[in-house]
């Protein structure tokens, strides 16, 4: 952020002439607090891919073998310390059933980060990834997206090849994808940390771009004011001449 300070008019005592007083604009930059962040993360994916299990593993370091389909949109909060930064997270677990899809869209508006999750043992969940990516890009342009292939531990039941996921990620210009297991916990923390760092980088870069844009805007104001003052001086001198 930036703020504009306008200095008081001062007389030129040395010359003691009739020129108008000079005005100046001082641009002072307010630096962003780079030690604290607050983010909203949303988990998307078809029913049964393990969204709730991933969230429970990350929040509580637990896994429930008994499967229960999520029927309401819920969220959990967590505060972490990452590389001397304090980060508050609000993580939303969405409903995977198609009939709730229009309702779910409202919950990932303004998300800073999105996990789009599929089941490595069910190819049909992989084939729906593109739909979720399109939805996120439509409703949350600034969200950082990370694809997660869950149930990595079920090696013998796997239906999607690693190369297929890699090609999909490259073709859709995604930052990266990860294979994880909510049951064993493999890759869960690493995936969250990766997404958090991407959100931090995006936020900091976005902040700097806005600062540069604002500074440029203020410089234009400064130049216009100076031109206005100079123009007023010329007019004033002409008026002071005797007839």
Describe this structure in words.
The chain has helices spanning 51-60, 101-105, 123-126, 129-139, 162-171, 188-240, and strands at 2-6, 25-29, 36-45, 74-82, 85-93, 113-119, 144-150, 177-179. It is α/β, with parallel strands linked by helices and 243 residues long. The chain has a domain at 36-200: P-loop containing nucleotide triphosphate hydrolases (Rossmann fold). The strands form two sheets. A six-stranded mixed β-sheet has the order 4-5-3-6-7-8, sandwiched between helices. The two termini are 52 Å apart.
Relevant CATH superfamily of the domain at 36-200: P-loop containing nucleotide triphosphate hydrolases
How would the global form be characterised?
A: globular
Strand order within the widest sheet? 4-5-3-6-7-8
Report strand %: 15-25%
Q: What is the C-level CATH assignment of the domain at 36-200?
A: Alpha Beta
Briefly note the CATH topology name of the domain at 36-200. Rossmann fold
Task: Record keyword descriptors for this entry.
about 240 residues; alpha/beta; Rossmann fold; six-stranded mixed β-sheet; about 40% helix; globular
